[in-house]
Specification:
This protein is mainly α and 109 residues long. It is built from four helices and two strands; from the N terminus they run ααααββ. InterPro entries: DUF1153 (IPR009534), Trp_repressor/repl_initiator (IPR010921), WH-like_DNA-bd_sf (IPR036388). This is DUF1153 domain-containing protein.
């Protein structure tokens, strides 16, 4: 290789290294955000309300936690998660009840 080729190769390597370093830093920042989000919702659950079930399903759908992690953390069964999905939707779209002043019962999403 000539001196000019060596300089070009060195420049290419340094640019690629800088780009990889920037990518690694951004990935580490995203990982920290995911860990922080996971910590806020991974708490012991005494009573499973529809809202809490929807929160777990939404976290699984968003990729914040795997299905296996949710099952292990909360002592759930796959069949139980599947029943939640049937009732609440794949992404945990919460469906609740709204009672009007007249006592009417309406579903909302």
């Amino acid at each position: 290789m000539t001196g000019m080729q060596d300089e070009l190769a060195l420049e290419i390597v340094s640019v690629a290294t800088a780009e990889l370093f920037d990518l690694l830093n951004s990935l580490e920042a995203e990982l920290e955000k995911l860990r922080a989000a996971q910590i806020t919702w991974l708490k012991p659950i005494r009573r499973w309300t529809d809202r809490r079930k929807a929160e777990v399903l939404g976290a699984i759908a968003a990729g914040r936690v795997t299905e296996a992690e949710a099952i292990a953390t909360y002592g759930l069964y796959v069949a139980e998660l599947n029943r939640w999905r049937e009732r609440l939707g794949q992404d945990g779209g919460y469906v609740g009840r709204c009672y009007g002043r007249d006592g009417s019962d309406r579903m909302y999403r």
